User: Which sequence fits this backbone?
């Protein structure tokens, strides 16, 4: 069987892959120098913008779902795959599809690519100091983006696992590219070990799910496990045995959830985050906190809502408990931090808890299971989009301060609003947004949407835990913001920040301002049925 490829559907990851190859070739043949460094950065930035243009073009298709790498109708029916999964449109005909560009995919791809613009601009500042191979940096960064854009479009287990590893593997090298830096090497080793363990756990769970359902396609697995569709004849004995031994399915669900728990730094799989964030170059820390986290959540949502919706009674309580523990541990440990990057790391852990919470009620009775972005899941996606803008703005300003403050502790930010008014105001606004206080209303609206979904979903106890944690989070955000406006004795003028950093900070803060003024732009996009 020969499958046709719909190149328009796979254009965003394809463009990024071609840009990665071009960067590597240019780095090999162009002479080393500042012009080459700037040129490679611009090529990477151009690749991201072209990929983003294709995402916008796909979104302009009138809500039509595009797909490719599909199993044709005849084979899909022969394997029991007809039904809801057969409604995709693509070059391969209708049937079970491995790559789908729907509203869910496009929102995540747009989030990843806009965040990538900020990370590439931050990278230009990081690489300007020398000591890091430029070509390898941009090549690895673009490879990570290929995986992050592909993952939300993945609709089978094989593509899902490959895309997730494509997100993870280049980050190990990016973390360690700052040569002769002991902290970077240590961070890379910790990240590598944690990722290997999480991948092994997830693969074990994936193998159990495949063994039970007899298919790698998520929609097919969901139909079989929910009893809506019979299994293939060759796998019927296995499924009958699984019904007799429900622990097999339960173990698979738990292992898959645990594997993705590492990726999103959810408790109890969170301990790697602060050390890795602090040891890695700041652009890599920003990438981990937004792009890698978004990819992890995309994969987790796809598996739970598409493939395991019929097992919600098993995973919903687990997700709810993990969300409560994650937001609580993140906020309590953030209160003890003196390093700016470590505080943002623990804050990122706490934010993962907020994003994770609505997923626990995504498959409640009466919830719509047909649209990935309806109800509770849409609330999680909306929160993730708003969080990305706020967090990237904070990391961009932290990077400007790190150029003059070696230790980059909270004390170094005292009086920042007087030394550098633009940087001080930008960081203060991002912190206020993360806290959910006026005028940073974007964070407040995001929390309200999540809180509403928890109450409507019958998880009142989780809503109370979230409310308490929101109050706890106010402490360290407000204390840090207060230091920015605390006068200090006159000091030597700070070194002028690299222009790309200003652009990165300005873009992220501008998005945070837009979301604060018109939050409905995100809420309508993420919660409207596809």
Assistant:
């Amino acid at each position: 069987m020969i499958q046709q490829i719909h190149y328009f559907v796979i254009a965003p990851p394809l463009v990024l892959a071609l840009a990665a190859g071009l960067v590597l070739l240019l780095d090999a043949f162009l002479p080393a120098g500042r012009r080459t460094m700037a040129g490679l950065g611009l090529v990477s930035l151009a690749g991201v913008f072209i990929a983003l243009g294709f995402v916008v073009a796909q979104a302009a298709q009138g809500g039509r779902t595009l797909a490719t790498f599909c199993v044709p109708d005849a084979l899909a029916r022969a394997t029991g795959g007809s039904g809801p999964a057969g409604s995709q449109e693509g070059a391969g005909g209708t049937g079970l599809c491995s790559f789908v560009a729907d509203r869910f995919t496009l929102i995540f791809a747009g989030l990843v690519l806009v965040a990538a613009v900020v990370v590439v601009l931050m990278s230009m500042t990081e690489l300007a100091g020398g000591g890091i191979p430029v070509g390898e940096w941009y090549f690895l960064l673009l490879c990570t983006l290929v995986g992050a854009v592909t993952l939300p479009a993945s609709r089978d287990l094989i593509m899902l696992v490959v895309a997730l590893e494509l997100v993870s593997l280049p980050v190990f090298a990016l973390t360690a590219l700052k040569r002769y830096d002991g902290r970077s090497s240590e961070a890379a080793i910790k990240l590598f070990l944690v990722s290997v363990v999480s991948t092994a756990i997830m693969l074990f769970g994936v193998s159990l799910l495949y063994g039970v359902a007899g298919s790698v396609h998520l929609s097919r697995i969901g139909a079989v496990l929910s009893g809506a569709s019979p299994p293939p004849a060759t796998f019927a004995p296995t499924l009958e045995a699984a019904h007799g031994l429900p622990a097999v399915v339960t173990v698979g669900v738990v292992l898959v959830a645990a594997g993705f728990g590492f990726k999103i730094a959810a408790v109890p799989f969170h301990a790697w985050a602060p050390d890795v964030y602090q040891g890695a170059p700041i652009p890599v820390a920003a990438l981990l906190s937004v792009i890698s986290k978004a990819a992890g959540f995309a994969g987790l949502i796809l598996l739970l809502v598409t493939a395991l919706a019929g097992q919600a009674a098993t995973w919903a309580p687990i997700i709810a408990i993990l969300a409560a523990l994650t937001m609580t541990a993140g906020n309590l440990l953030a209160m003890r931090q003196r390093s700016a990057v470590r505080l943002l790391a623990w804050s990122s852990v706490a934010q993962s808890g907020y994003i994770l919470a609505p997923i626990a009620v995504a498959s409640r009775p009466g919830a719509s299971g047909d649209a990935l972005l309806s109800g509770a899941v849409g609330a999680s996606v909306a929160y993730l989009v708003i969080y990305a803008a706020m967090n990237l703005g904070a990391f961009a300003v932290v990077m400007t301060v790190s150029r003059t403050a070696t230790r980059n502790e909270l004390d170094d930010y005292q009086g920042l609003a007087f030394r550098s008014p633009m940087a001080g105001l930008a960081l203060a606004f991002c912190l206020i947004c993360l806290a959910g206080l006026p005028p940073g209303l974007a964070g407040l609206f995001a929390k309200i949407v999540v809180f509403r979904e928890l109450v409507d979903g019958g998880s009142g106890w989780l809503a109370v835990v979230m409310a308490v944690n929101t109050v706890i989070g106010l402490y360290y955000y407000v204390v840090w913001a207060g230091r920015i406006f605390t006068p200090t004795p006159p000091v030597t003028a700070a070194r002028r920040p690299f222009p790309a950093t200003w652009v990165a900070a300005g873009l992220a803060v501008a998005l945070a301002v837009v979301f604060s003024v018109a939050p409905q732009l995100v809420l309508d996009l993420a919660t409207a049925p596809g």
In short: The chain has one domain: 11-527. The CA atoms of residues 121 and 500 lie 5 Å apart. The two ends are 31 Å apart (CA to CA).
